Amino acid sequence: MELKNEGVLATFFVFGFAQTAQASTGNTLLEVGSTDPEVTQVQTELNYLGDNVGSPDGIFGAKTETGVVAFQKANSLSADGIVGTNTSEALTSAYAKILHADKANAIIATAEKYIGAPYLWGGESPKGFDCSGFVQYVFAQNGISLPRVSSDQANIGTPINFNALEPGDLIFFINNAKPRDRRQICTIEV
Fold it and tell me: pLDDT digit string (tens) for 41-86?
């Protein structure tokens, strides 16, 4: 998408959070009696989604089975208490969606704490921020390490469609008015 503003042509790129949940059982079936690190991940995800299965211990017991059945029913899956490919993908997707929303809300809350902080070119602390310094600082406060400058930040993101923007996503603008070899990221938005 391109924007024109006072004769300056800018292209913007949108980057969203990479999904942090990576668990997948692939072709493995997890059921009562299974013991595996993937059972621990399933238990963690079920607990996070509100299906209390107790402390994640990697042992697929009756509580885990009950949580799996409840999740399957709530998501119109075959409620057999077995974590196969369909259940695993649905569980991981639901977990990632909630985790993303929680992380985005935490980032936004952190950013709001610094409303009114002074602008300082090259600044990267509450004493004064520039745009990319602010983004780096706020994300670091939430356990996400980003490069210092916006052009480097833009290179590590996951491109998403503009229509898929969610709270906490970053938008990078490229100044195309400069000669092709001198184009630069000129601003960043959260």
Answer: 999 999 999 999 999 999 999 999 999 999 999 999 999 999 999 9
SS3 state at 173: strand
Of 99, 106, 102, which is closest to residue 138 (Cα–Cα)? 106
CA gap 83, 28 in Å, rounded: 8
Report pTM.
Answer: 0.60
Q: Using the structure block, give the residue that is written with the tokens 């949108």.
A: 14
Q: In terms of DSSP bridges, do strands 124-125 and 184-189 run parallel, antiparallel, or are they unpaired?
A: unpaired
Distance CA 147, CA 136 (A): 7
Distance of CA 139 to the CA centre of its chain: 11
Q: Which backbone phi and psi does 13 adopt, to 5 degrees?
A: -115, 145
185 or 89: which leads in pLDDT: 89
CA distance 69 to 63: 10
Looking at the DSSP assignment, which residues form a beta bridge with residue 87? none
- d(C-alpha 134, C-alpha 148), whole Å: 9
Distance CA 119, CA 128 (A): 5
Residue found by looking up tokens 């630069």 in the block = 184
Record the tokens describing residue 169, joined without a space. Answer: 């996503």
Query: How many residues does this entry show for the chain?
Result: 190
